[in-house]
């Protein structure tokens, strides 16, 4: 099932995509809801970020190839960071290139969307707490990350957390390609089968640190092939089985 969130005159609504049409949802998308019989064409709606997280948890170094590219040792446990909610950007929203940054990178990632409150969840039960999955671009000011020796500033600018275009509730967790395309050229091309820590391990690990709430996101890390974007560029993050998140970079 594909879940979208879209703008209407009466505010944001959730919907379910069926054969190119969006059927409005009444109720709680993470709980009990009904789906309208008739739908509007997907292309006619303005899509919003497909959920409303209380936090975005990032995972550093979750692909062996990316750890090698960055000359970092393979981590023994997930390395976590947070991105602020003010960084959220909808599909087709514009990524703003900050004046203080000299190198702005894309990072293609799969994001996990949490379905229900999760605390101390064992890996074997973790998938019960997952609503679905979406595409995420963990936009990073690479020069500031190196300069600061940490990621807080580098990953926290407004517009640095684009995600969408929708939540896919069913994904093959053994085989999902993760790609970044810059102006149509493939720059990252990996698969979540290369994860160091799989989806149940990540949900369990994070839930041992902090309470996960419905709609919260875990961005699962990026593969090798990270690189810079320039104002005017179009960056697309594609996860096979989900879809493509598309954003343009603009000058501040
Ligand atoms: Mg990342």
Please tell me about this protein's structure:
The chain has three helices and 21 strands. By secondary structure, the chain is mostly beta strands. The longest helix has 11 residues, at 199-209. The N and C termini lie far apart (37 Å). 43% of the residues are buried. The chain binds magnesium ion. Magnesium ion is lined by residues 58, 107, 109, 138, 221-222.
Write a concise keyword list for the protein shown above.
mainly beta, 252 residues
Provide a compact summary of the structure.
This protein has 252 residues and is mainly beta. The chain has helices at residues 64-69, 142-148, 199-209, and strands spanning 2-8, 11-18, 21-27, 33-35, 40-41, 47-48, 56-60, 79-83, 88-89, 94-97, 104-106, 108-114, 130-137, 140-141, 161-168, 177-182, 185-191, 217-219, 227-229, 234-239, 243-251. The radius of gyration is 17 Å and the shape is globular.
């Amino acid at each position: 099932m594909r879940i979208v969130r879209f703008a209407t005159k009466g505010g944001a609504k959730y919907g379910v995509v069926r054969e190119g049409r969006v059927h409005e949802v009444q109720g709680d998308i993470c709980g009990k809801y009904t789906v309208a019989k008739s739908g509007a064409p997907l292309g006619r709606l303005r899509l919003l970020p497909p959920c409303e997280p209380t936090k975005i948890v990032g995972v550093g170094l979750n692909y062996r190839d990316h750890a090698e590219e960055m000359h970092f040792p393979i981590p023994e446990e997930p390395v976590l960071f947070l991105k602020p909610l003010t960084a959220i950007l909808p599909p087709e929203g514009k990524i703003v290139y900050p004046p203080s940054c000299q190198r702005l990178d894309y990072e293609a990632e799969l994001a996990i969307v949490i379905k229900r409150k999760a605390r101390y969840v064992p890996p074997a039960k973790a998938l019960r707490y997952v609503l679905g999955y979406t595409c995420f671009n963990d936009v990073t000011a690479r020069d500031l990350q190196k300069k600061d020796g940490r990621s807080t500033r580098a990953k926290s600018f407004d517009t640095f957390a684009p995600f969408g275009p929708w939540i896919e509730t069913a994904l093959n967790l053994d085989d999902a390609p993760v790609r970044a395309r810059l102006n149509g050229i493939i720059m990252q091309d990996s698969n979540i089968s290369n994860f160091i820590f799989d989806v149940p391990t990540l949900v369990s690990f994070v839930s041992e640190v902090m309470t996960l709430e419905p709609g919260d996101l875990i961005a699962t890390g990026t593969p090798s092939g990270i690189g810079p974007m320039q104002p005017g560029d179009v960056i697309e993050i594609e996860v096979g089985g989900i879809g493509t998140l598309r954003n343009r970079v603009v000058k501040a």
